[in-house]
Recover the amino acids of this structure.
């Protein structure tokens, strides 16, 4: 459907670097819209990609984690997730993060899709996977900046949390339902 | 499940204002983790909430829009969406945005949930709605910074786009599936 592209794309006229380090590249841009109007500032940022894993045990329970999220200033229940290093295979990152955060492994990995947490202002993508028949394969290995609890939830519990606005990370909600759709299609 | 909160929450020790205007409040924070370790910088930002509408016509087609998204530097296919003004009722904002972006109205609104595009670094929330039996009620009213095409897609087309990583906004993917779950539960 890219026939629309030329009539809808914005043109970047100039960009100011607001903050750039190893964590983020945050910019203020001046753009010309397709209708000729110029807008400024329009903020965007670049950040690393990450992998999210909908990991289900042999017993059908979902491996979840709880950790503090400074954006919303709350402890959230989510799926295991972690950074994809530049150039790294996203599935390899997903396998590593699952093992480190939960101690579980899987031999049955399914790619669910690549989605954008916030395509409007950020360039980073989340690679979502379903890992089935997960088994405990060792201890968790958290680095010293990870304060993460682990818990096992049923499908009913996760859907209850989503319904009560208590499982709120959009990427994780999308990944949960993509996994459900994949399971139902088989 | 807030019994975990005290052992997982981070403590904000200090914050530097990197950029603050009517569009964004972008900060660099210094945090003490529950294990006593201090990390800095950890960037967060505050931005306005928004509403996303999964709007379905009487014929069962989904109202979609296409627009340029500077974060990923691409024209994306999405659902209608727009800002919720501070203090505004999110459903009121959803009704307004649907009317303005598509010219369609609905008398059958269902709240799907409140989710976070990126709870890790941002505070804003997306209020998701399902609007059924939408009918054309007038012309579109786009403001001069909105260059947005409109299109009608079938359920099969949307699921095909999602499967091909061509419908990538995580909030919109989550909203689509939340609407599907709501429809299936009835």
């Amino acid at each position: 459907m890219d026939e629309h592209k030329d009539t809808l794309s914005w043109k970047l006229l100039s960009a100011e670097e607001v903050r750039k380090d190893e964590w983020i590249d945050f910019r203020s841009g001046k753009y010309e819209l397709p209708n000729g109007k110029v807008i400024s500032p329009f903020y965007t940022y670049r950040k690393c990609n990450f992998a999210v894993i909908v990991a289900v045990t042999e017993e059908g329970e979902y491996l979840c984690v709880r950790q503090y999220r400074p954006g919303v200033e709350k402890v959230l229940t989510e799926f295991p997730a972690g950074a994809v290093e530049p150039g790294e295979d996203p599935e390899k990152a997903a396998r590593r993060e699952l093992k480190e955060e939960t101690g579980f492994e899987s031999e049955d990995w399914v790619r669910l899709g690549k989605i954008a947490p916030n395509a409007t202002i950020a360039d980073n993508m989340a690679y979502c996977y379903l890992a089935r028949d997960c088994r405990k394969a060792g201890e968790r290995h958290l680095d010293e900046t990870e304060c993460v609890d682990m818990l096992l939830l049923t499908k009913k519990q996760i859907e209850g949390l989503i319904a009560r606005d208590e499982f709120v990370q959009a990427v994780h909600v999308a990944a949960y339902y993509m996994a459900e759709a994949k399971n139902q299609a088989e």
